[in-house]
Design goal:
single chain; alpha+beta; six-stranded mixed β-sheet; five-stranded mixed β-sheet; 11 helices; 11 strands; 16% strand; globular
Length: 314
């Protein structure tokens, strides 16, 4: 195993330290744009390098941001805290974190954690592999505490192999080997038990996977289960059955939960007026959004924003 910095972080799709924000986003969005791209669509750096890039660009280490890529973090030394969509996860040796595109995150307390950063674009993984399905899923478990388990040892070894291949002289490094090793990493992670012991998104099968993809595209356009059923060629009953298998909730609850999550993100991490947020999420009248949000979050948009105001925004 190659140990460089003692924290192995796999970033699937991009690098939040080497990217420029998208100009039309309410929340800072960082895309894949490394200063040097030895292998197109793929990069490995140390976590310390990521933080140094941020410092050079005048960004605080705990800035709130979205990413257009996946980040996968395997910690081997040090401690800290990392927040993903309002859940703060302690990081310590054996912690595995997976942040997906569009999720809002920040290093609450970078602490002493250090390590290796692996980045790849959506086009990089081999599309013939079933790992491609995992890359395209925006939902799923975010944190596992693996400790010194066999799963930790397997992932550490695979990440070491990835780093060793990437560090070969440029003419000899193989993108295909990197792709296949990355697919193996993803499939190994797919074997891990769900850390919260909850439902399994895979139990919903292809129906649920297609529904979640359409939901991610359309949650701000429609909240009607019938619209999703029509677009996908299913019945509402079929969608509900898939959602119940995957999440334990009917389809309407899954739709509303996605909208409420985006509302929480925008209220907590932007200064946009509630009326503007309401329009972003498909509510012509702010009062309707207020009732919807209060029903799902247990407090008004204003109260929720006040609770979360003052958190670092970058």
């Amino acid at each position: 195993m190659v140990n460089r910095g003692h924290l192995e972080i796999v970033v699937l799709y991009g690098d939040p330290g080497g990217a420029d924000p998208a100009p039309d986003e309410a929340i800072l969005r960082l895309d894949f744009n490394p200063p040097e791209e030895r292998v197109p669509g793929f990069e490995i750096i140390d976590l310390a390098t990521l933080h140094e890039r941020r410092r050079r660009r005048g960004r605080r280490p705990d800035l709130v941001h979205r990413v257009d890529f996946h980040t996968l973090t395997l910690i081997t030394q040090g401690t800290g805290e990392h927040a993903i969509d309002f859940v703060t996860h302690p990081v310590r040796p054996g912690t595995l974190l997976w942040v997906r595109p569009g999720q809002v995150q920040r290093f609450v307390r970078p602490g002493t954690a250090n390590g290796t950063h692996l980045l790849f674009t959506p086009a990089f993984p081999p599309h013939s592999s079933s790992a491609d399905r995992l890359v395209n899923e925006w939902y799923g478990s975010a944190c596992w505490q693996l400790g010194a388990s066999p799963a930790y040892a397997v992932l550490s070894t695979l990440l070491g192999q990835l780093r060793a291949e990437y560090d070969r002289p440029e003419p000899t490094v193989s993108a295909e080997i990197l792709q296949l090793l990355l697919a193996t990493v993803l499939l190994q992670i797919d074997r891990l038990p769900h850390p919260d012991g909850g439902s399994d998104p895979r139990a919903g099968g292809e129906v649920y996977a297609r529904f979640r993809a359409e939901l991610e595209r359309s949650y701000a356009i429609t909240r009607r289960a019938a619209d999703y059923a029509h677009r996908l060629g299913y019945t509402v009953k079929t969608l509900t059955r898939a959602c119940m298998a995957a999440t334990g909730q009917p389809v309407k609850h899954v739709i509303d939960g996605r909208v409420a999550l985006e509302g929480r993100r925008l209220l907590a991490h932007t200064d946009e007026p509630v009326a503007t947020i309401a329009r972003r999420l498909g509510f012509p009248e702010p009062t309707n959004f207020g009732k919807f949000f209060t029903r799902h979050a247990g407090e008004t948009p204003g109260a929720f924003r006040q609770t979360h105001q003052g958190q670092p925004q970058g």
